[in-house]
Amino acid sequence: MDPELTRRRVLAGSAAVASTAALLGPLSSAASAAAPSGAGAGAKPTVVLVHGGFADASCWNGVIERLQDAGYPTIAPANPLRSLPGDAAYIASVLRSISGPVVLVGHSYGGATITNAAAGASNVKALVYVAAFVPDKGEQLGVLINKYPGSIIEAATRGVPYDAPDGTTGVDLYLEADRFRAAFAADLPVATTRLMQATQRPFSATCFTDPTASTAWRTIPSWGLVADADKAIPPALQRFFYDRARARHVVEARGASHVAMISHPRTTTRLIEAAARTTG
Fold it and tell me: Could you tell me which residues are beta bridge partners of residue 128?
């Protein structure tokens, strides 16, 4: 077996284990892993990476590897993808378990999640948006996605009913197998996107209709990455979001699909590190 492939699998497995342990509670290994961020002068902040819909925390593996190599404590929790208020509350609980400063990063729907979750979180010092939604108070993602032309994500999506714990029926959103790559990850190998499609995590359709309740970017400095070949969130919409939020710095990942953190992990990591350097 290729030694580099083996190394990457070990790193990916380690990251997944660390992420799971991180969610066990404030006194668990999440707090322990983050402890170095408050360990003294010059210590690096904890980076928290929040994924979006149709994905899981493994989408950050390439970024996690680079951040850890650079000495950053890193956590990639599982975004529940059940509702915007519920998901934001869950990520907020993860933030409370961390001692010391945090750089909070969101991809796609994860951008809306962190926008709500970081409100009032005094330890969050920077927000980084990666091909992400950056909604304002009262806005709905299902409306925002049509503000500029270019998204094919709705046409590629199908709804599947599911039974909610309270006895009601909800709708989960999936990307169709024959449209997944074009809409979500066109710059990745076909073999990779076939696996991503088969293991995609659906998310509740209510995430597109839930209004944003809080806007952390109004009080916390932000950074943005534009995926300039994105067919999910149009690049023009990403630029609009980052301009409105008065992002301190915006980079463009040339030729990047929606999953820019997978296809351009170095560019993504450098932007996160730039944000992290401002927290000292």
Answer: 105, 223
